[in-house]
Amino acid sequence: MSVNTLEPAAAGGRQASLELFHDIEQLLYKDARLLDEQRYDDWFELMTEDFTYWVPVPQSRYRRDRKGLYEPGRMAHFDDSLAELKLRASRWKETTAWSEDPPTRHVHYVTNIEVEPAEASSEWLVRSVVISLRNRNEDEENWLGGRREDLVRETPAGLKLARRKVFIAQSVLLAKNFNTFL
Q1: 51 is in which domain, residue-wise?
Q2: Computed from CA positions of residues 74, 78, 79, 84, in that sequence, does the dihedral angle turn out positive or negative?
Q3: What CATH number is associated with residue 53?
Q4: Has residue 27 been placed in a domain?
Q5: pTM of this prediction?
Q6: What mean pLDDT do residues 26-37 have?
Q7: Is 83 a member of any domain?
């Protein structure tokens, strides 16, 4: 294994260099910070125009059940395009958004980052674990945790998020609302 690579060459010989891994890691950390600061317009700049965001609702199933916890076509908390995300975030800025008055305080943790080649030569599949701590008022605290799969694309403007799938662990959300992105 070369000093400049994360793993032995993947199929087709493509691999993520340490520099690329660092750049992707920094993209994810910036993504988390912008979400914490509720700087959604800046957050959207990290995405491609064809960005999609999917957060399915997990369904608890017995091991013998062939259906998975998360399946396309079933209910999702989010199944949005970039335009739909922008609309959702714009609603949170309105004075009539009771769920954001007073504003929620967020802290996003991102860890366990793995990078591997995607099908397209300019794209990388990035897996990570994310935890979101949400606080409102004096005593409302909620944790959300899950695994993410991001598709990161190399563009002339730098690395951009092209797709995000978030597989949250909780099947029942105890929060009064779900006004956060993961």
Answers
A1: 13-168
A2: positive
A3: 3.10.450.50
A4: yes
A5: 0.84
A6: 97
A7: yes
- 102 upstream amide cis, omega within 30 of 0: yes
Torsion of CA 59, 29, 22, 129, to 10 degrees: -20
Nearest to 106 by CA among 32, 18, 27: 32
What are the structure tokens assigned to 31, written together? 């993504």
Cβ atoms of residues 46 and 27 within 8 Å = yes
Total residue count of the chain as it appears in this document: 182
1 located within any domain: no
pLDDT digits (tens, 9 = 90+) for 75-100: 787 889 999 999 988 887 777 766 66
Report the candidate in 109, 144, 113 with the shortest Cα–Cα distance to residue 126: 113
Q: Which two tokens stand for residue 137?
A: 């008022």
Q: Please determine, for residue 125, whether its predicted confidence score (pLDDT) is greater than 60.
A: yes
Residue 126's pLDDT is what?
Answer: 98
What would the 3-class secondary structure string for the chain be? CCCCECCCCCHHHCCCEHHHHHHHHHHHHHHHHHHHCCCHHHHHCCEEEEEEEEEECCCCCCCCCCCCCCCCCCCEEEEEEHHHHHHHHHHHCCCCCHHHCCCCEEEEEEEEEEEEECCCCCEEEEEEEEEEEEEECCCEEEEEEEEEEEEEEEECCEEEEEEEEEEECCCCCCCCCCCCCC
Cα angle 106-108-102, degrees, rounded to a multiple of 5: 5
